[in-house]
Amino acid sequence: METREKIIQVALEQFLVFGIRAVTMDEIARQVGMSKKTLYEEFSSKEELVNASFEVALKEDECAFDQMMEEDEGVIGHLLRMTRYLRERFSSMNPLLMHEIQRFYPKCWKKLEEFKRDHAWKGIVEVLEKGKQSGDFRREINSEILAFMRLEQITSAFSGNVPGGKYSLLEYHLQILDHFIHGILTEQGRSNYYKKLAIHQS
């Protein structure tokens, strides 16, 4: 692995778990096994490293979403794969991470917003339309509005306002996803969902 890729990998792991402000360039250099001087030769500032790290994270998400769209398991299978992906993505993510990016790293936040608008939103609309055609999702739902609402649900979970601070980010995300899924399913879709859910959990 090239030095730059190694730095990004370690930095991203640290940012996701501890948040950005809690992780110093000294700590990243120590984790990578290099001097801080060598680290600054690759990245002139922490901001540059943050931007590069989350650009890689977004590419990973984009590839994962594209792969989910290509796999032909139907819309119910897609929902279950998305649930599994969110579980893996948010299981150890620091709840203050997105708030820090929005407040202190505007260039990185802009990239996240562009990804949400140009990629994630379109993907959700496509899945919702397929589900309406298959009879698994309610035909009367407005796919564009529901896709926007779903993305806002995800964003809101990073505001730091998880009720009472007693639930993890993962628990919060899985609950709102479960609520969203049951709001769009038809009776046929509900039956298919629980059948596939049982298979995935066995």
Automatic annotation (TrEMBL):
Residues 24-43 bind DNA. InterPro entries: Homeodomain-like_sf, HTH-type_TetR-like_transc_reg, HTH_TetR, Tet_transcr_reg_TetR-rel_C_sf. Residues 1-61 form the HTH tetR-type domain. SUPFAM superfamilies: Homeodomain-like, Tetracyclin repressor-like, C-terminal domain. Pfam families: TetR_N. Keywords: DNA-binding, Transcription, Transcription regulation. Gene3D superfamilies: Homeodomain-like, Tetracycline Repressor, domain 2. PANTHER family: HTH-TYPE TRANSCRIPTIONAL REGULATOR BETI (PTHR30055:SF234), HTH-TYPE TRANSCRIPTIONAL REGULATOR RUTR (PTHR30055). This is TetR/AcrR family transcriptional regulator. It comes from Cyclobacterium plantarum. The lineage of its organism: Bacteria, Pseudomonadati, Bacteroidota, Cytophagia, Cytophagales.
